[in-house]
Design a protein that fits this description.
Helix content: 10-25%
Order of helices and strands: HHEEEEEEEEEEHHEHEHEHEHEEEEEEE
Radius of gyration: 26 Å
Number of strands: 21
Distance between the termini: 45 Å
Structural class: alpha+beta
Oligomer: single chain
Length: 380
């Protein structure tokens, strides 16, 4: 049965599919709202410190003119012809349709076309204007026609190890006046809980901001976080940054993801973005997403203008940051879920370590978006 405290980014998932241990179950419950990415994202095993993520992409629907075009020209110079093939139909800004009539010349980045097809009129076009790919047309019996190769692209990811030691002297452990949280019995137990929070915080922030480094560099591999992985739809200097509106937000997140073939259903927002939603006049509604094993409600929201996309506040994101995710393509790949490794005693000290090892995995990075660089929200 699904567990209410083991949530996918927005819904429950079958915990039999996850790598689990008792500590993992407790830590995801304790930090389900503070660290929503590492607490709610489904987990799967990985057998190596280095693994490959897959990016599959459909061919772009837009190509850019590399030189001006006159009504009588049959050769079109483009910035990139790698996505085109013989028989493609393209639409110029004027509305004219042209048909590719030869295999594109990749070396020279140009195509030969038939002008004014489908009853349209040949017209001029300026350099840097965009042509829209309408379709590919054939007679059904053509052979030996070169076509584009749709090949998955591999992206290397590194599993990171997090380790937080806990060391308490025997004298402190024996103290009866040490301030501990309700339900915590000893100074050692209190320090264990504090270290576990630090471990989870480190995992969460690394999954956002780490840039990645191979284990061959220093023996301490560092994963690539979402900011490093999401390159196609990464917006660091948005338009209207000083008066950012809800329409700007839609343009930079959901629209970008959907244009590139994604089906975004989750928004992770920094805490001050909740103020932004109010500034935009968008009432946020709390959804019933269950509670963890300690009875704490799991924080999930919706805003009507987002059309059913789930909003999750992520307190450890830097201010004015939003991450738009197609959640079915995001998971944690874990070599070792967080666990307690006791070291026993050394002299008068009691020692142990919290350890975890893994990395965020993102398929098809162009289906997700990263947004930052806003300085103020504006109504309207």
């Amino acid at each position: 049965m699904p567990s209410s405290y083991l949530q996918g980014i927005q819904r429950t998932f079958e915990n039999e599919l996850q790598i689990r241990n008792d500590i993992h179950a407790v830590s995801t419950a304790l930090f389900v709202n503070r660290c929503p990415l590492v607490s709610r994202t489904p987990r799967a095993a990985v057998g190596s410190t280095v693994f490959t993520m897959i990016k599959r992409s459909f061919r772009s629907r837009e190509v850019v003119l590399g030189a001006a075009l006159l009504p009588g020209d049959e050769i079109l110079n483009l910035e990139d012809v790698g996505a085109l093939m013989n028989g493609d139909v393209l639409e110029l800004p004027s509305g004219e349709h042209v048909e590719v009539i030869e295999t594109p010349d990749i070396a020279e980045s140009r195509i030969r076309v038939r002008r004014g097809v489908e009853g349209t009129t040949p017209a001029a076009a300026a350099a840097a204007e965009k042509l829209y790919l309408i379709s590919n047309s054939r007679d059904g019996g053509e052979v030996d026609q070169a076509a584009i190769a749709i090949r998955p692209i591999g992206v290397t990811q590194y599993c990171q190890t997090w380790q937080h030691p806990v060391q308490i002297s025997g004298s402190l452990q024996a103290s009866t006046g040490y301030a501990v949280a309700p339900g915590v019995r000893t100074p050692f137990d209190q320090n264990k809980m504090d270290a576990l929070q630090n471990l989870m915080d480190d995992m969460e922030v690394a999954c956002y901001y780490s840039r990645g480094e191979s284990p061959e560099v220093s023996g301490r591999p560092k994963q690539k976080g979402l900011k490093a992985l999401l390159t196609t739809n990464k917006v660091l200097a948005p338009q209207n940054a000083s008066a950012y509106k809800s329409t700007d937000f839609m343009r930079d997140t959901l629209e970008r993801c959907r244009t590139n073939g994604g089906d975004p259903d989750v928004l992770l927002l920094s805490s001050n973005f909740m103020t932004g939603l109010v500034t935009w006049g968008q009432g946020v509604q709390r959804l019933t997403a269950g509670s963890n094993v300690f009875g704490t409600p799991i924080e999930v929201f919706e805003a009507p203008f987002l059309g059913g996309v789930t909003i999750i506040e992520a307190p450890l994101l830097k201010p004015y940051t939003a991450i738009c995710l197609t959640s079915s393509e995001v998971r944690l790949r874990m070599k070792r879920n967080e666990f307690w490794n006791p070291r026993g005693s050394r002299g008068d000290a009691v020692e142990g370590d919290w350890i975890a090892e893994g990395a965020i995995e993102v398929e098809n990075e162009q289906h997700h978006a990263w947004l930052e660089g806003i300085t103020a929200f504006s109504a309207g």
